[in-house]
Amino acid sequence: MSLTNSPEGGACFAGTPITKVTMPALAEMKRQGKPISALTAYDYATSRLIDEAGIDLVLVGDSLAMVVLGHENTLAVTVDEMLHHTRAVRRAVRRALVVADMPFGSYHSTIAEGVANAVRFVKEAGAEAIKIEGPRVELVRALTAAEIPVVAHLGLTPQSVHRMGGYRVQARTADAVVSLAADAQALAEAGAGALVLEGVPREAAAAITAQLTIPTIGIGAGPDCDGQILVFHDLVNLTFAPPAKFVRHYGDAAALLRSAVEHYREDVEHRAFPSDAESYHLPEAAKRVLGPNTELSRPLEKLRKA
Ligand code: KIV
Description:
By secondary structure, the chain is α/β, with parallel strands linked by helices. It has helices at 23-32, 44-52, 64-67, 79-92, 111-125, 137-145, 161-164, 174-190, 202-211, 232-235, 253-269, 284-289, 301-305; strands spanning 3-5, 11-13, 16-17, 36-40, 57-60, 97-101, 129-133, 150-155, 194-198, 216-219, 227-230. It contains 13 helices and eleven strands. Helix 5 packs across helix 6 and helix 8 packs parallel to helix 9 (202-211).
């Protein structure tokens, strides 16, 4: 089954009109106590599958630096690379909210530069919201004033890997939890529409979720957040590293792809691929023109006999 446009121009799935997920819709889901499902995606094919599976929010995460581009951390990915992948995701997604991650360095100097780069994600790549890491309250206020919906991100913020001294669970003391909750509240008051909480104790995430009117989306933050997000490659075992404690493998794409590629190689080596049925054939008229004694026709000897 595939996504098609309805005659009225709206998106449909299997003939049923789709209700587009928007930033206000996420807040409504929180009010109604409906869990929000979110995943990262970086390309057309997986985004399309993720959207058709009914995931509410697709994040073009800067984790693409690691899981797609093979970098050691997320710091190297550029605005242009993120835009390139956001466009591909945007072309695939009909229903989910498309959120683009602002990469390291694109919002860390002036507020004006942060807003200008965020505008590029909306204008040039079709993002419906952007995500920024850290308690950047003034920037969230400026983005909100510029009509750009913001997903904030607190706790273990991977762009701060060097400051944190590695990927460590954050907010492990009472003081740190109080400070995290204050940052979360300030970001919500500045206009953030949702908050990703990453790598924090379950109790801290639960308290912040209860305190905020905007939805929290957890990753390594326990089950009490309003929604959950995982890196797609973690979900399907394509990350070539031991999984973090919070990762659950819902499939083994590595095993599936490895086996498919190995079988293809074996078939090529044994001349078992392609078969005659997988080959194109000359029309009868052309076969007749290429007579038995011409240079060109010699390889067709067999064809004529067939
Ligand atoms: O880049 C990313 O993948 C993220 C996570 C929240 C999943 O920021």
